[in-house]
């Protein structure tokens, strides 16, 4: 597979890529042109403008189509782009497994699920085990959870990203909870449940990662709360007290930290506060790691050329290790 995160200037490509986006515009004198964003599991690259004279080269290259692209890697305004040298060939939809073109986590999902199940078995609180098993003892939910990304364009925007992010948050939260003498089991369960709403909020399709209708209208925080409430209502009366149910919901409602960033309320317990910062640590560290790994953000310098969108600051690539 072509590694789109490490494209050398002048490199010639002839590969199958997924059309992630298409923009059709007009020049000042009214002539149409198009730009495509193409990608595979390693990343994405934009095409140079496909001008009017060559616009037929992009016929049928709509979002979600798989095309064979032939061209050369160039650069404009410090950003790599693909200059097509031949018409795109649109492949039949049934000839390619679309999800194979989408970014995937590199960790084995079997290992991640083993960790989750070890946590379930190790819980000494029967009530917390019930809370976790509401979702993670459900095979259908596990399949959806494993397939979902952690976001659509930012941190953990990969098939399997939600599972990986949730485990990272749980690991980070456990360490903080032990240090601060908080309830380790409670923050573990909270971390694994905090983003369940993304299963219903995000879509995975030939067009890449996006939002479902409910995701657009409600968002994953509200959807997660509704999902939890539905499953709590299926339990025998008295399984949880009203206060316990409210605290479980509080984790989902407050994990973004403040109303400004999408939380319904700020964290009001030590465990909720820990969950918020563990969530931030996983997301922000992933953004930095992804940015450092992408050659597009670097020229010949060890510093990023600009302030890349995911991190909003310049980063430095360490020139050598500490061996």
Detailed description of the structure:
- This protein has 323 residues and is of the alpha+beta class.
- The protein has 2 domains: 12-97, Nucleic acid-binding proteins (OB fold (Dihydrolipoamide Acetyltransferase, E2P), Beta Barrel); 102-289, Hypothetical protein af1432, CATH 1.10.3210.
- Helix content is 38%, strand content 17%.
- It is built from 10 helices and 8 strands.
- A 5-stranded mixed barrel has the order 1-2-3-5-4.
- β7 (202-205) and β8 form a beta hairpin.
- The radius of gyration is 22 Å and the shape is elongated.
- The mean pLDDT is 93.
Summarize the model shown.
By secondary structure, the chain is of the alpha+beta class.
CATH class of the largest domain: Mainly Alpha
Percentage of β-strand residues: 15-25%
Strand count: 8
> In the residues, how many domains can be counted?
2
- Strand numbers in spatial order across the main sheet: 1-2-3-5-4
Approximately how much helix is present in the residues? 25-40%
Helix- and strand-based class?
A: alpha+beta
Spans of at least 5 consecutive residues with low confidence: none
Distance between the termini: 31 Å
Look up the CATH topology of the largest domain. Hypothetical protein af1432
Shape: elongated
| C-alpha Rg (nearest Å) | 22 Å
So how many helices? 10
Main beta sheet, described?
5 strands, mixed, barrel
> What is the H-and-E element order?
EEEEEEHHHHHHEEHHHH
CATH architecture of the largest domain: Orthogonal Bundle
What is the residue-mean pLDDT, rounded to a whole number?
93
